């Protein structure tokens, strides 16, 4: 067993960070990374990699780190994961790779995520790029259209481009990245990091066409016909916000987490009025829900300077699907958790603005009503499939909730040559994580290459 | 980047842009809109496609300077470029031979009605247009409307041109006189609500085009939610055309005010920049 304790990365102190959008976790210094890499036992049959959805050769890359061969480490990681700077930051490691680490049985597991991030950031700093081609499929006259530039679409584009396919990514918004750009806040995943990883893609020759809503400007039929793409990948995510359906839903001061986060992240409303898009939160904010999105919304709200930020959650904190680390950060920063509590009604003032929220709290003794004095309510209740693709592609088989159905390992949809992955599919369970989206994007790329070869 | 190929001023606060956007012009249908993002710091502003020409590769939008974003748009000249135009967005209007159709345009709403009028006329409808403005100096596109209207009526609030009336008066007269199969009304919310109230007792299907505050325009944020009967719809993907008899206009009017505080702040800043004293 390792005698050295897990290396902690420096964090910005809570009092500093609740006033700005700077990254909270500072990341390893070289010395810390070296010490941490030294903790790895280089197991014969490492369980860490089994926990990683894309099966990174973790032991291998950590070994390179310990030898200061960071480029070697980067190459090893990128055989399986193209965006280490992103995943090292946002993967729920405690449930994936680190959950399998043998050191975790007796002490703290190796900080695989922090090491991966260290290597990814190092690569960005030195402009390294992973260009090892996947087996070329021969002549490079094939064309692929990718719909959506979230992690699923980006990962798919990467593999196809490396195989010599001409790739065009169509993105509805004016910036690429999907949730990485509009959803996950700057203090957890700086946008510069995301854009740098995406730059690697464009350097491989991938074209990203923003402002293109597929289904509207071109249908999938257009892509396969008039625009002569040979294959299409649907990676449109599941961004349609869910509503609570209680009285007061549509009052001024109630908004979805997506709206709130988009106003802040994509439109940079935190810098209003220099950036023209207002965010519009008040002095007392209640976020309903307790997943990643809720925690992100609460911590983002806090940074915009209200007096109180509450998370209202119907279960206990232990049951929250959010990452433990993020919950801890939120508590440190001053987010107040109100658990076992269900919102019942949002109460308006005379002019249609939120004045308060009526909730029911349950405990051992029964249930009681509480009235929260809030002027802003943010719904973070999860999202569903966006209906645009389903509505404009009648040939495509989708389920009742507009999720795209795929077949087996290749992830081909009911339309020949059209594949799908990421949150818009429900393949392989319902984890909606960045790395899962990427792994399905890569799986589909494999399916697409096989399809191209045989057609 | 998208080039503005032509600018035309209709009045000190209303103007037209023609934009070079061949793919959008090709795909656009009457009733759809675009989102314009002038530069990195601007808001994404939804604007109806008032005309499109697939051959020339251009789309036309008509804009009313309502706040900072649209006022800034007034500063652009032909040949200038803006960073993004996304579209076409929204569901196209229903275009069929409905029989006799009345198309009502109020103020700037005249522009978005135009492509619908043209398409309905070409489908064989008997088209009656009613366009209304506050006064004569604000009138635009009168002759364009004539070209596609079997009958056309123009009114002004102050009587400086055409009949002195609100658009609802000729609308009501028509409904009393004869069989009208459909009404399409586009303009300020209060005007659309008034039109819907006029047609309600006659049971004539009335389509309005709602304009709630939007961000993405792709169904991702819910900012544009509208209560339609007892359902919630997103104007950007389910509309903007909606059944005027079901739209909850009161709620919409309140929701339009969500950011008033910030809009004032933006505007003040903009004016200070324009004429620094
Ligand atoms: C606030 C928040 C925090 C999260 N935190 C984490 C985390 O810490 N760790 C983690 O692993 N996961 C996290 N997730 C989940 C994770 O972000 C998603 O599972 C992942 O982004 C899904 O990737 P995707 O590529 O399928 O779709 P998305 O990232 O949703 O991207 C889809 C893209 O497609 C575009 N698009 C949609 N329709 C069209 C169309 N018709 N035409 C063109 N483009 C279109 C969209 O604009 C978008 O850019 C979080 C999610 C949210 C919302
Ligand atoms: C589908 C649709 C089609 C539209 N078509 C046209 C058109 O053809 N011509 C035209 O002049 N205007 C149109 N509008 C309205 C136009 O988008 C707003 O006037 C504009 O966004 C105001 O921005 P601003 O910065 O100038 O003013 P602000 O000071 O921001 O706002 C002025 C008022 O405009 C409304 N508004 C503000 N932001 C938005 C927003 N993001 N989306 C919608 N409304 C907003 C609010 O009611 C606000 O009080 C349309 C709106 C929608 C939703
Ligand atoms: S990609 Fe995610 S799960 Fe895999 S090793 Fe990296 S941090 Fe762990
Ligand atoms: S399980 Fe832990 S100790 Fe073993 S190789 Fe993986 S990271 Fe190293
Ligand atoms: S504008 Fe965001 S959902 Fe319609």
Could you please describe the fold and organization of this structure?
Chain A folds into 3 domains: 10-126, Fumarate Reductase Iron-sulfur Protein, Chain B, domain 2; 133-239 and 385-454, FAD/NAD(P)-binding domain (3-Layer(bba) Sandwich); 241-383, FAD/NAD(P)-binding domain (3-Layer(bba) Sandwich), CATH 3.50.50. In chain A, the strands form 4 sheets. Chain A has a 5-stranded parallel beta sheet. Chain A has a 5-stranded parallel beta sheet with strand order 6-13-7-8-9. Chain A is built from 17 helices and 15 strands. Helices cover 34% and strands 15% of the residues of chain A. The N and C termini of chain A lie far apart (54 Å). Chain A is an alpha/beta fold and 455 residues long. The model of chain A has no long low-confidence stretch (mean pLDDT 92). Chain B is of the alpha/beta class. Chain B has helices at residues 22-27, 68-73, 110-122, 142-148, 168-177, 189-199, 235-238, 249-255, 260-274; strands at 2-11, 14-20, 33-37, 45-48, 51-53, 58-64, 81-82, 84-89, 100-106, 126-133, 151-156, 163-164, 182-186, 206-209, 225-228, 231-234, 241-243. The longest helix of chain B has 15 residues, at 260-274. At the A-B interface, strand 5 and helix 13 of A face helix 1, strand 8, helix 8 and helix 9 of B. The site of one iron/sulfur cluster has 14 residues of chain A, from helix 4.
